[in-house]
Amino acid sequence: MSRGQGWRRAIVLVAIAIACALPFLLSNFRLFQFTQVFIYAIALLGLNILTGFNGQISLGHGAFYALGAYTTAIMIDRWSVPYGWTIPVAGLLCLTAGFLFGIPALRLEGLYLALATFALALAVPQILKYFEHWTGGSQGIVLSKPGAPLGLTLSPDQWLYFVTLGVLILLFVLGANLLRGRTGRAIVAIRDNPIAAQAMGVNGALYKSLTFGVSAAYTGVAGALSALAIAFVAPDAFNVFLSITFLVGIVIGGLASISGAIFGGLFVQFVPNWAQEISKAAPWAIYGIFLIVFMYAMPRGIVGALRLAGARLARFRG
Amino acid sequence: MEIFLQQVVSGLATGGIYGSVALALVMIYQATDVVNFAQGEMAMFSTYLAWSMLNAGVPYWAAFFATLAVAFVCGVVIERVVIRPVENAPVLTIVIVCIGLLVILNSVAGWIYSYIQKPFPSPFPEKPITIGNIFFGAHDLGALGVTLLVLLLLYVFFRYTTLGLAMRAAAQNPVSSRLCGIRVGWMLALGWGLAALVGAVAGLMIAPIVFLDPTMMSGILIYAFASATLGGFTSPGGAVLGGLLVGVIENLVGTYVKFIGTELKLTVALAMIPVVLLVRPSGLFGRVAVHRV
Amino acid sequence: MALLEVEGLEAQYGWTKVLHGIRFAVEDGGITTILGANGAGKTTTLRAVCGMVRTAGEIRFDAQQIAGRPTEDIVRLGIAHVPEGRGTFTQLTVEENLRLGAYARRDTGALARDFARIYDYFPVLGERRRQIAGSLSGGEQQMLAVARALMLRPRLLLLDEPSLGLAPLVVREIFRIVRAINREERVSVLLVEQNVATALDLADHAYLLETGRVVVSGPSAELRRDDAIRRSYLGY
User: Fold this and answer.
1) C119 to each of A117, B79, C146, how far by Cα in Å?
2) B92 — contact with chain A (CB < 8 Å)?
3) Distance of alpha carbon B48 from the chain centroid
4) Is residue C124 part of a domain?
5) What is d(CA B157, CA B151) in angstroms, rounded to the nearest whole number?
6) Which pLDDT band, with edges at 50, 70 and 90, does B292 fall under?
7) Distance CA A159, CA A152 (A)
8) Least CB-CB distance to C71: which of B172, B173, B178?
9) What's this model's pTM, rounded to 2 decimal places?
10) pLDDT by residue (tens digit) across B179-191?
11) What is the band of A127 on the pLDDT scale with cuts at 50, 70, 90?
12) For residue B291, is pLDDT > 80?
C-alpha cells in the first residue's frame, strides 16, 4: 500500500471514529443537522456519479430524492412496513426509475439534458400535489421517528444518526469500489471521450443508463432517510431549489470525487445557517456571496483545491 | 374568432418578452457555454431601478432609456468583475457563480424594495385599440412592438456593424479572434451588457402585466428556458421564434383547454421542454453538434 | 538589425516545458523557416511569439520587447499569425473573415482597396466571397487564412504548417503566393513546416528544432547541400 493510500485510510478511519463519538457530545439539534449532512452527502455522491464522473448534468435529482422520501412515507403510513425495509425498496425503485429515465436521456446532450431534468424538477411539487390520494396532497404525510431497537439506550435522533452513518459508509464503500474499478474507468471514459470509449468496446448507452439508475438509487436512499429523519414529507420541500442545492453541493465539494460529497454536504447544510446569522435581513445575499467567493478560491471545489495543494506539495518535496 | 385573435396577439406580446430573455440567454450561452441563471434577476433588478426613477418623478420614456443604459453598464461590469475571475474555470463552476448572483440580486431586491407586489405603469394607453372590430390591448401591441424593435436593432447591429461582427467572432472562436486583434474579454463583457439590456426591456414590458415583485422574473426565466430549448440554444433567431411560439401556445392552451387554468400554464411551458427534446434533441432550429473524431 | 529576434526562449504548457531556450531571427523582408519533427516545438514557437503561451526569454520585434504582452496587442504591432488548422471562422462568410483580419487596423479608409488586392492574389476567394467559410475546401480555407492575415497589412507573417493536409498542387500555389507577397509587399515570413523540401525552397534561412532546442541553423541553401544534415535530420 502506497504512502498516499495509507494516509487516506487513516484519515477515513479517524473521521469515522469522530463521527461515532459525536452523538454523545452534541445536542439533539446539532445531531440532527449532522444526520442531514450525511443524507445530503449520500444524495450528492449519487449526483456526482452521474454528473461528475459520467458527465451527464442533471438538474432534476430532487425528483428521485422525493421519490425515495415518498416511497418510505407511503410504505410506513399506508402499509405499516418496518422502516428498515423501506430504504432498500426506495433505492431499488429509484434505480429502476433512474434507469428508465436514462434511456430517453441518451439522446440529449449536456445542456439539453440539464434543461430536461430542470423541467422535471420544476414539475415535482405539482405532480406530488396532483396524486393526492397517494401523497396526501399539500398536507403531506406525517411519520413518527423510529426508535432504537430494544437493548440500545439511544434516543431516536441518535439511533437515526447511526443508521444514516451506517448507510453512508456502506454506500460510499460500494461507490468507491465501483468507481475505482473497471466500471468507474468506463464511466469516466464515456464522459471524457464517448467516441473513443465506444471504439474500445464500452457500451455507452448501457453504461449511461445504468449510471443514471445508480445515481438515482443513491439519491432515492438519501430521500428515504430524510423522510425518517424529518418524520414528515410535503410536496413543497421537494421544489427546484433542492435540485439546485444538489448541484451547488457537488461543485463546491468537488466534481468527480467521493469525499467531495461529504464536504458538499457540510457546505449546503451549514453555510445557509451561517448566512442567516450574519444577516437577518438578506441571508440569501450572504449565501450568494459565499458561493461566489468559494468558486473564486476553489474553482474545482474543495477536493480540487486539496488535490492542487497536494500536487504543489509533492513538487516542492520532489 | 375574435377571442382567438386576441389570445394570439396577447400570446405574441408575452411571447416577445419570453423570446427577449431567451435571446439574452442564448447570446451568453453561445459565447461562453454558460447558461446565465441570473438573467431573470438582472432584468428584475433593472425594472426596480426604473420603478425608483418613476417614483422620483422621472417621465416614463426617460426612465426607460436610462434603465436600459444602466442595465447595459451593469451587465458589462458584472462580466468584468464577477465572471472574469472564473472565466477559465469549468463550466459548472461559472454556473454556480451565476446562481450565487441570482440569489444575491433576489435577496437584495427583496431587502431594498420588500416582497410586496407593486403596480408598474405601462407607457401605452389604457384604452384598447380596435383593428377591424376586434379589441386588442394597447399594452399587448405596444410591448410586442417594443420587443420586436429592440430585437431588430440587435440583429442589424450584429449583422452589419464591425463591432457586431467582432462580437460574433469572439463568441465563435476566441483564439482566432485574438489573432485578429479582437479583445475577446471586452467582447464578452459587451455581450453581457447587451443581454442585460434586452432583459431590462423584457422586465419593463412584463411588469405592468404581472406586477413588480422580486420573484417576477423567475416564472419568465422558465418560459425563456422553454423558448430557447424550443428554438434551439444555438440559434438566436430560434430563441425569439421559440418565445413567440411558447407565448401563443401557452395562451391558446390556457383559453381552449378547459382543465388547464392559469396555474397550470407554467406546466404547459415546462411540458414543452421534454416533448420537444424527445423529438428534436437540439430544438427546432438548433444546430446538431457534429463531433469530429 | 533583424525584424524579429528571439533569444533564450523558453515556453511551457502547465508544468511541461516545451522550449528550452532557443534562438533565432527573421530578417526584415526575409523568409525564415523552422523545421522539425512532430512535437519538436515548432508550433509552440509561433504561439510564443504571439503571446499565446507562457514564456521566458527575450522576443524583440522591431527592437521592441514583446514577450509577455497579450496577443491582441502583439497583433496590433503588425504580426499576423496563420495558426495550425487555419483557424478560420467557419460560421462566417469569406468576406466577414477578411473584414475581421483588418479589425486591428486604424486606416480603415483603405479597406476597399485591400479587398481588391487580396482578391487579386486569391481569385477563388473573390468568387466565393459570400460563401460560408466552413463550406470551402481545405485548400481554399488555407488561402482564406493567409488572406485574412494579410488584411492586417502585417510586417511579419507567421505561417504554421500551411501545407498540412493539402494536395501538392494547392501547396505549390499557396507558396507561390507567399513568395509573391514577400517580394512585392515586403512582408517578412516566419514559416513552420514539416514539408522540408518546399520550405527550404522558399526560405532564405532555416532552423531545425529537436525537442525544444535548435540543433542546426543556417542559410537554407547550405542545409539543402549538406548531405549529413539532410539524411539524419531531414530524412531524405
Assistant:
1) 51, 39, 12
2) yes
3) 16
4) no
5) 10
6) low
7) 9
8) B178
9) 0.89
10) 999 999 999 999 9
11) confident
12) no
What residues does each domain of chain B span? 2-217
Q: Which residues share a beta bridge with C216?
A: C208
Q: Which of C52, C54, C72, C148 to probe the B interface (max B CBs under 10 A)?
A: C72
For residue A248, list chain B residues with Cβ-Cβ distance below 8 A.
96, 99
Query: What is the C-alpha radius of gyration for chain B, rounded to an integer number of angstroms?
Result: 19
| Residue C11 in domain | yes
Instruction: Name chain A's partners: 3 or more CB pairs within 8 A.
Output: B
pLDDT in tens, B93-140: 999 999 999 999 999 999 999 889 999 999 988 888 887 777 788 888
Q: Could you say which DSSP state residue A169 is in? A: H
Is C132 within the bounds of a domain? no
Subunit contact A111:B93, Cβ cutoff 8 A: no
User: Taken in order B263, B266, B270, B272, is the CA torsion positive or negative?
Assistant: positive
Say if residues A194 and A204 touch (Cβ distance below 8 Å): yes
Q: Are A213 and A152 in contact (CB under 8 A)?
A: no
Phi, psi of A184, deg, nearest 5: -60, -45
CATH number at residue C208: 3.40.50.300
Q: Determine the distance in angstroms separating the CA of A48 from the nearest CA of chain B, rounded to an integer.
A: 12
Q: What is the ipTM of this complex?
A: 0.90
CB A125 within 8 A of CB A238: yes
Radius of gyration of chain C (CA): 17
The domain in which residue C45 lies consists of 4-87+154-234
* Residue B12, CA distances (Å) to B5, B252, B253 in order: 10, 11, 14
Mutate to test the interface with A, among B36, B113, B259, B277 (most CBs of A within 10 A): B277
The closest alpha carbon to B194, from B72, B45, B101, belongs to B72
Interface-testing mutation among A50, A115, A244, A298, with chain B (most B C-beta atoms within 10 A)? A115
Task: Please answer yes or no on whether A255 and B267 come within 8 Å at the CB atom.
Answer: no
Q: For chain C, how many structural domains are there in total?
A: 1
pLDDT band at C68; cut points 50, 70, 90: confident
B275 inside 8 A of chain A by CB: no
Contact A287 B103 (CB under 8 A): yes
Looking at the predicted structure, is the pLDDT value of residue B259 above 80? no
Residue C55 in any domain: the answer is yes
Question: Side chain identity at A136, as an amino acid letter?
Answer: G
Of the listed ranges A4-18, A265-279, B53-67, the least confidently predicted one is A4-18
Is pLDDT above 90 for C74? yes
The set of cell numbers assigned to C25 is 531571427
Flag if B175 and C101 touch (Cβ within 8 Å): no
Which residues of chain B make contact with C81, given a CB cutoff of 8 A? 179
Complete DSSP assignment for C170-223? HHHHHHHHHHHHHHHH--EEEEEES-HHHHHHH-SEEEEEETTEEEEEEEHHHH
Partner-chain residue, chosen from B166, B168, B173, that has the shortest CB–CB distance to C103: B166
